[in-house]
Amino acid sequence: MLTWRRVTEGNFGLLREWLARPHVARWWHHDTSAEAVARDFGPAARGEEPSEDLLVTEDGTPVALVQRCRFADYPEYRAEPAGQVELPDSAVTIDYLIGDPARVGRGLGPRVIRAVVAATWTDHPDASAVIVPVNAANRASWRALEKAGLRRVGTADLEPDNPADGRAHHVYRADRPTGRAPGPAAPA
Q1: Does 180 map to a domain?
Q2: Composition bias, kind Low complexity: at what positions (predicted)?
């Protein structure tokens, strides 16, 4: 069973380990020093900024990280895709990683994405869509989005996380289900 909670400062060591693993480092391209992780994850962990860093567990074991935020809360981040794809003011985005390389390629990514997207409709009652740009070269990531039920709605020229990658990004979208009031998230 998948569950999640907000990342705390006590999880920074685990995040450093995950970010340093080759399958994650390739796409996240994040400084793994203690100072960098505290700088980049600390404000959300302390509730000082509106983004959510979610530690996902499967049967109690930490397995993934999902970052979720409203585009409107980060105008500079919103500006880049906004001119290239339809981006509602109330759209939410996610980013994600699977920490353990032994769990990659086993369907965990789509399950995590599907569960967090479903929970978004309850957690963010004003969210009309979840929109996720993913580097076009990151086939595993965009395939996970497709398997989770998101649809590709365009391609955008965006700054890559890793300078070694090209600027082409596929943009995926899930719209709030119609015909149902916000309620509990669908089971994972």
Answers
A1: no
A2: 179-188
